[in-house]
Amino acid sequence: MSMLTKPSGAFPTSLIYITVGTLVAVWMGVSMYFYYPESDFGRFLLIGTLASAIAILIIGLLLGQIGRAARHAELPPEEVTQVVATTDETAASNPPAIAPAAPQAHHPSANGRVPVTTNEDRISR
Which residues neighbour 14 within 8 Å (Cβ) at sequence distance 6 or greater? Predict the structure, then answer.
């Protein structure tokens, strides 16, 4: 039954997106304040990274909302859940029967006699 009620991975994913987006945005802001680049390419990289961090943050926020809204749609219908729960309870109350192991029969050699092993045979092996 746990298979039918497994929550989606949207929450951990959105938490990672929000954390990474926020940290990168904060460090880009600190970098812009203390070490504003003098070249056009440096400004391009700084502002591009800041915009990417804000985009990742927004995606994380939206992904959390989407995952929360989709949680209901991921679960099976009530009828199926009840049937599976009943089946699991029935299976748990009636465990399968386990047959005892058969005793080992003594198998004689091909000529009908039991082979005799001497100490010399054991040593030569």
Answer: 60, 61, 63, 64, 67
Q: What is the pTM of this model?
A: 0.51
pLDDT at 125 over 70: no
Banded model confidence at residue 1, pLDDT cuts 50, 70, 90: very low
Residue appearing with tokens 């203390």: 34
Structure tokens at 107: 């198998």
Q: How far apart are CA 60 and CA 62, in angstroms?
A: 5
Q: What sign for the dihedral angle of Cα 27, 29, 30, 35?
A: positive
Q: In which domain, by residue range, is 68 found?
A: 1-75
Q: How many domains does the chain have?
A: 1
